[in-house]
Design goal:
The structure is a homodimer. Chain A is α+β, with helices and mostly antiparallel strands. The first copy, chain A, is built from twelve helices and 16 strands.
Chain lengths: 412, 412
């Protein structure tokens, strides 16, 4: 570490604090910055200014991604970046850290070598979280052309505004979305906060991501029979909530069985048309489960399904399981992982391989390009939470490793 | 039975079918007739007509109760009746059966003896279910003066309409509510469908109610910590839903332990601000528990509270229990019970003592007057349900016992 002057890197934290001001709910703790909101647009302008200040000739593409670039001798481009939208009540680091550090890395590289062998580009993806429209990773899908017009045309937010209307309000025309598609990218490196506690627990500075967990989401409908809460003997009830509660506990137990290579969560549960003095007749809940390999996820899916059906039989209720989304598990590119690992070692930072249990733009991009991710520790593993925090030292460490990796990839 | 011509009693079922037409949700199965709705008002007019047709000189009191009366030699009055409002998606029998049978009983008595010793009155209470405003038994509270002006003044339905506004729309003035209060009642007999399966299971025609269960309602708030569903290891979670699910099962188990002298139900449960990919941080649920005696209910309350607190400790979450309503257990008047029992025996109908696990107007009135209830079987014990059903024969049986009891009480 002694060779590197870390002082300039301190501004990364300042930039993140400035960007955290752009929140839709200023009276609520944390950051809420959803796709195409006015605060999202303000953050977008801020990022354009930031890139312009670093001489990266920024432009906004057809979906609202912000790009900055150093033109190399070759048109082949090494891409870095992350997203600048957030969940509701999220933190100041998730996504936007990789954007700010990417801008800073390119700015530092540009100072040292005006024209690298390969071109370098940083992108601030417009959307990854799916917090406004029921679709994730619009930004990275757009640059790969990995989206279906008829699917995107259906997207409506919870206020009834369509994606296309929201684009229009931001001066974007959905008919031009295809223009965001690019074919000159050669590799993608994403720097991100871990969002889990493993690096902190191991007191390790840098996580070299081995794979991104595959993920599946279900909606489960449990139907019993609504009945009078006073007069209906327990043995005669078909109580949808008692059954659903047993299912929640069974799914949680399966999560424990599969951890750390799999995990399962029930995030939403509601008694439909529930009444304080009625036996619940209908319950809906969600299941989110993830695994390091698709074969493991498939096994976990089977076990969750059996657990749900067993409890349904035990409590005399009917269930309907509707799979909603599936994302395959994605291994990170081995040679890129080795480069990151080698750069971290050269800089003198502790490192470890780590699986990403969260989804990322890298999960989309890895299906088209050699892709790798760098993680830095999250305090207490908190993320999607107002108290999300990563210490300045960790922010700087990640940024230095990213910069060194990009320079290596660009200049060989 | 052979002495009684049951043919005239057949019309009770026809009257109930006619009244079932007055429903706010005609496209939905079952009957929805909530206090002061247009369909409620139409049913009220129908009942006035019915009483007028039977020569009972009907009038509507200051809260919308419909009364019909046979003037006796004495001003002392034996009251019968029930309510004509319903729950959402309820049946055609709950409440209104006691009203229609009461009208018919008075009409039959009037034919036999024009002036009984004591006066007889039938009342159709405007409201008992609490299905529109968060308060139950407005009709019976009003005739006893058992209501608090400041409490009633606060009542607002889920559309934002206040009770007073709703009264006004029906030509009623809340400032006159006190005029519904009466002091000439000597006893109250309420005929009602059982709403549970005990009479049907025992193949018994008449239930002589021994007591009405006391009842308590709580709201429970469970607070854990919202976290990322992918990256948060299970051991680090404070999952409010997993904890609440364990509480639901524990409460259900306690219900089994206390049945048949107590029962417990969780009717409402919701993850607050839940998201499919977040560990639930906040859950709210309701508890409805009932017992034949207040001492039993108190013991059950303690056990439910301990079960909730034990699970909270086990899962590392915080709980807040807010008691919402309490209704004391009420024994039925012994001499009135004996009269009912003796009349059923004289008529030749099978009978048994039975506890009411549902609340009734009789629960309010018993605090001021000698009160008793007569139950007839409910098919499969279903109630608060569109498929609520009582066979015509049972309807007639109950009506005959009611009539005979009222005549006995009026003439001695």
């Amino acid at each position: 570490m002694s060779m590197i002057d870390l002082n300039p890197y301190r501004r990364i934290e300042d930039d993140l604090q400035q960007l955290a001001q752009y929140t839709e709910e200023p009276t609520r703790k944390g950051v809420t910055r959803r796709l195409y909101s006015p605060q999202w647009a303000a953050a977008q302008r801020h990022l354009v200014q930031l890139m312009r200040g670093e001489g990266l000739n920024p432009w906004v593409d057809a979906v609202g991604n912000v790009h900055g670039r150093i033109e190399g001798r070759s048109r082949h481009t090494i891409l870095t970046g992350s997203h600048f939208d957030t969940v509701r009540g999220g933190g100041a680091y998730d996504g936007v850290y990789g954007v700010v550090a990417g801008i800073f890395a390119l700015s530092q590289i540009k100072k040292r070598c005006r024209v690298p062998e390969k071109s370098l580009e940083v992108v601030a993806f417009c959307e990854e979280e799916g917090s406004r429209f029921p679709m994730t990773c619009l930004g990275s899908r757009a640059i790969l052309g990995a989206w279906q017009p008829e699917e995107v045309a259906r997207l409506v937010d919870d206020q009834g505004t369509s994606l296309f209307e929201a684009m229009q309000m931001n001066g974007l025309d959905w008919r031009s979305m295809g223009e965001a598609n690019r074919s000159d990218y050669e590799a993608y490196i994403e720097l991100h906060v871990e969002q889990g506690p493993e690096l902190e627990d191991a007191q390790c500075a840098i996580g070299v991501v081995s794979e991104i967990f595959g993920q599946e989401r279900w909606l489960v409908s449990v139907r019993g029979d609504s009945a009078h809460a006073g007069t209906t003997p327990l043995a005669r009830r078909q109580d949808a909530l008692v059954a659903a509660s047993a299912m929640v506990l069974a799914i949680n137990t399966l999560g424990y069985r599969y951890e750390p290579i799999g995990i399962a969560t029930v995030g939403i549960l509601e008694v439909i048309h529930g009444s304080i003095n009625c036996v619940p007749g209908h319950v809906q809940f969600s299941v989110d489960f993830r695994a390091a390999q698709d074969s493991v996820r498939q096994r976990l899916a089977d076990e969750i399904r059996h657990a749900i059906e067993d409890e349904a039989k035990r409590y005399g209720v009917r269930v309907n399981i509707s799979p909603k989304t599936v994302a395959q598990a994605v291994p990170m590119h081995e040679s890129l992982r080795n480069t990151i690992s080698e750069r971290a070692r050269a800089i003198g930072l502790s490192q470890m391989p780590i699986a990403s249990r969260a989804g990322h733009d890298a999960q989309i991009i890895a299906q088209a390009l050699p892709t790798a991710m760098i993680f830095v520790p999250s305090a207490q593993g908190l993320s999607h939470h107002p108290d999300e925090y990563t210490h300045r030292q960790h922010l700087m460490n990640g940024s230095v490793v990213l910069e060194s990796t990009l320079e290596k990839l660009a200049n060989g």
